[in-house]
Amino acid sequence: MIEFHLNSRSGVAPYLQLVRQVRQALRLGLLQAGDQLPTVKDVAGSLAINPNTVLKAYRVLEYEGLAAAKPGVGTFVTKTVSDESVSTHKRLNLELAAWVGRAQLAGLDFEDMEALFQRAVRSAAQEEAV
Amino acid sequence: MTNAIEARALGKRYGRRWALADCTLTIPAGHVAGLVGPNGAGKTTLISLATGMLAPTTGTVEVLGGRPAAGPGQLARVGYVAQDTPTYAGLSVADHLRLGAHLNPRWDAAMARARIEQLGLDPKQKAGKLSGGQRAQLALTVALAKRPELLILDEPIASLDPAARREFLQVLMNATAEQELSVVMSSHQVSDLERVSDYLVVLVASRVRIEGEVDGLLATHHLLTGPRRDAASLTASQQVITESHTGRQSTFLVRTSEAVIDPAWTVDPVSLEDLIVAYMGHASTESAEIRMLEVKR
Amino acid sequence: MIWLTWRQFRPQAIAAACALAAVAIVLIATRPGLSADYTAAGLSACHAHCATAASIFLDRVGNFDKFLDFAGVLLIIVAPALMGLFWGAPLIAREVADGTHRIAWNQSVTRTRWTIVKLGLVGLAAIATAGLLSLIVTWWTSPIDAASLAGGSAQAATGGNGVHVTFNGFAEARLDPVIFDARGVAPLGYAALAFALGVTAGVLLRRTLPAMAVTLVAFVAIQVLMPNFIRPYLLPPSHATVPLSIQNGIHVNTNAGSGLSEIQLTGSFAKPGTWVLSQAFYTGRRVDPYVIVTSSGPELVMAPQACIPTPGSSGINPADCQSALAALHLRESVIYQPASRFWPLQWIETGIYLLLAAGLGWVCVWQIRRKRTP
User: Which end of chain A is more exposed for a tag (fewer CB within 10 A), N or C?
Assistant: First the structure.
């Protein structure tokens, strides 16, 4: 069973942190289809966070098709990360490496690149939320 | 769903001083609501009125749709842990559980015993000999085993060390999930509130400054940084909460339900702590005054 | 709620039980001695004119028993005050001062019920304790009380080495102000009232120590007020006029050595067990140059000739003086409560106290319901 942790200083909303940890575990193969996620009660109790936060994270996972709730039993992982997504990641990885190379040539240092990247991610997230 | 606490123009006066004035708020059920504010702001007064320990001078307050402490039925629905978690020093841990069993029709004896065991408390130990953290856990267990619908806590962990605080919140959140509790908790510790609360009430100088769901508040408050300009130049829909200026730069914390599209602004999200501090009016006012002096020079 | 009240009261209950047990043991152990003396003096067989036998018995009562008699009275008078201070004052004040009322009032019992149960149970315990104490002490002193009622009086007893020992208040009438509080049902009334005073002070002042002080002051005030100003008039007192004669009430004592004489008009109203409220002396004649009655007693303004020592003589002749005084036809007017009034007065006074206690209890409940205690 996966064990969650929370970084209260990261600036990332707690529910998102939980979602990402599940996604990461799936990627790494620590979680597979059929595995049960910890109950809302247990996560709230071990992390000392609001149960609604955990519920929100699990709902997002359900929406993304990664998990499904069985009433009275718990929430279970429904999808093992497929090769298709692995290959998409490979392509994105290569594109990213190319971009980094171009940015270096343009004279940006790593902090500039990070700032640009965070801006782009944040504005995309805000657009999504609206 | 009935609201956890509904107050209409609620006020409490002692002599000439209003401990709580014109308080109108609606805390929904099914949430963990954080009540935050400086000392003397009226948090304890509000909680005393909500638990029926005090009678209001003006206005009304309804808890779960009923009058506070109106009768045994109403009392059974609301649990209360007072400031510094009082316990009967001369009674043992087991005696406290027996107290709960005798005085509450819905007492869950099995749950109480299980929790005490989990916490590692010795049932024969007198409550006066327990540590602060253990006493807080005992008081919480007694309140939870009553199976209330709403649990009200008045700064229960202010004087505890970080480990004890974390343990208390763990037990509280576990129980909230298990019993589907609504919780109203007053606290100083913003970091605790950030972890556990999804509804916020800020109380300053006996008045409610702001209340709302935490997600909504965070989504509608932004920190705008940009070239120096007056607050009046902002659009009407952007309510300025705090502002500070240097010679070249202005920073505004605004509340708005619309998107900020002016490209001159750098828009950053606001943390819950910054939001609370802004509404409590401390740091921002001070820094604004300092910056004003700089400009004048 | 009953369980919680008992659990909180347990230490005090145990202390009281131990104290009662100790008292009971001492009294039970010493009573047979008293009974033996009583029978030996012939009082158990005597049905009329028992004054002599009674006096014989009272003289035989040993010093230790006299001390127990005194201690018993003291204990019964002090016990209600102690209960008021240590059971009543902290009952609610301590909860509010400790903050535990925030637990108690947020379980599923209303604070009204909480107050009523606490008041009722501990109040009953106080009354019962006082009742038991009174029962056992009254049982122990019944021979002495009977002897006093029969007209006996105690002389000064001689101790082993020729020392005179007297205990003031030994074998006084039951109606005597001090003894009255320690007999019959009066202690129950005092216990209820002292307890109620304590709890009310605690509720109003919210701190134990000030409440204890106020309770003590109030209780002492009542102890002083009741016997002196209220009890005499609870039932209409009786009047009697008694003539004084040489045999009865007029005494002239001469101290041969110094030649001084003492003229004593003692009361001749000698009914045993009565409570004399006031005495006044006056002469039968209308014109009265001889005696003036003042509030502190009779004063002979002008003594008859025979009672004034002539300068140079060796004093007065007591017999002549006595005859002269008798010729004045002095009379004594007495206002009193007869012995038979003991039980009626007991019930009336206890009833008043119980009513007062109930009233105070109501004040407590009312104050707590007003919701002024965060």
Answer: C
Is the separation of the CB atoms in B208 and B23 below 8 Å? yes
Tens digits of residue pLDDT in B129-178? 999 999 999 999 999 999 999 999 999 888 889 999 999 999 999 999 99
Does the distance separating the beta carbons of C1 and B102 come in below 8 Å? Answer: yes
Q: Which of C4, C102, C370 shows the shortest C-beta gap to B86?
A: C102
Q: Do B177 and A129 touch (CB under 8 A)?
A: no
Q: Which residue has the tokens 């956890």?
A: B4
CB contact under 8 A, B177 and A40: yes
Is residue C170's pLDDT more than 70?
no
H helix or E strand, kind and range, residue C32: helix C2-40
Chain B nearest-CA distance from C103, in A, is 7
Q: Which domain holds residue C259?
A: 238-337
Contact assignment for C107 to B104 by CB distance below 8 Å: yes
Mean per-residue pLDDT over chain C, rounded: 81
Distance (Å, whole) CA C149 – CA C163: 28
Encoding tokens for residue B213? 């769901």
Paired tokens of B236: 């009407």
Q: Note whether B92 contacts C: Cβ–Cβ < 8 A.
A: no
Task: Write down the mean pLDDT value for chain B.
Answer: 87
Residue whose structure tokens are 């327990």: B130
B71 touches chain C (CB under 8 A): yes
**How many B×C Cβ pairs under 8 Å?**
84
Of B53, B75, B98, the CB nearest to C373: B53
Between the alpha carbon of residue B266 and those of residues A123, B222, B263, C259, the distances in Å are: 12, 10, 8, 121
Interchain contact, B53 vs C371, CB within 8 Å = yes
Is residue A121 packed enough to be buried (19+ CB in 10 Å), middle (13-18) or exposed (0-12)? exposed
Check whether residue B153 and residue B222 sit in a common domain. Answer: no
B72 reaches C (C-beta below 8 A): yes
What's the domain count of chain C? 2
Distance CA C148, CA B201 (A): 78
Tell whether C203 and C348 lie within a shared domain: yes
Give CA separation, C321 vs C265, C307, C309, in Å. Answer: 12, 5, 10
Query: So what's the pLDDT on residue B243?
Result: 86
State the complex-level ipTM: 0.84
How close B200 comes to chain C (CA, Å)? 23
How many percent of chain B have pLDDT more than 70? 94
Q: Show the tokens assigned to B51.
A: 């638990």
Q: Is the pLDDT of residue C184 over 70?
A: yes
What does the pLDDT read at residue C286? 42
Q: Name every chain B residue with its beta carbon within 8 A of the beta carbon of A49.
A: 173, 195-196
Q: Cβ contact (<8 Å) for B196 and A40? A: no
Asked whether residue C128 falls in the same domain as residue C55, the answer is: yes
* Domain that includes residue B234, residue range: 216-296
Whose tokens are 């008694």? That residue is: C242
- Asked if B103 and C107 come within 8 Å (Cβ–Cβ), the reply is yes
pLDDT digits 0-9 by tens, A47-67:
999 999 999 999 999 998 889
* In-domain check, residue B127: yes
pLDDT at B288 over 50: no
Query: In C, which residues are within 8 Å of B79 by CB distance?
Result: 106
Report the candidate in C24, C311, C262, C242 with the shortest Cα–Cα distance to residue C139: C24
Chains with 3+ CB–CB pairs under 8 A to C are: B
Do C229 and C281 belong together in one domain?
Answer: no
Residue B294 has a pLDDT of 37
Name the β-bridge partners of C286: none
Domain C-terminal end among B205, B234, B252: B205
Smallest Cβ distance to A8: which of B32, B191, B219?
B191
8 A C-beta contact, residue B71 and residue C110: yes
pLDDT (tens digit per residue) in C285-305:
543 445 544 445 555 555 666
Residue type, C134: S
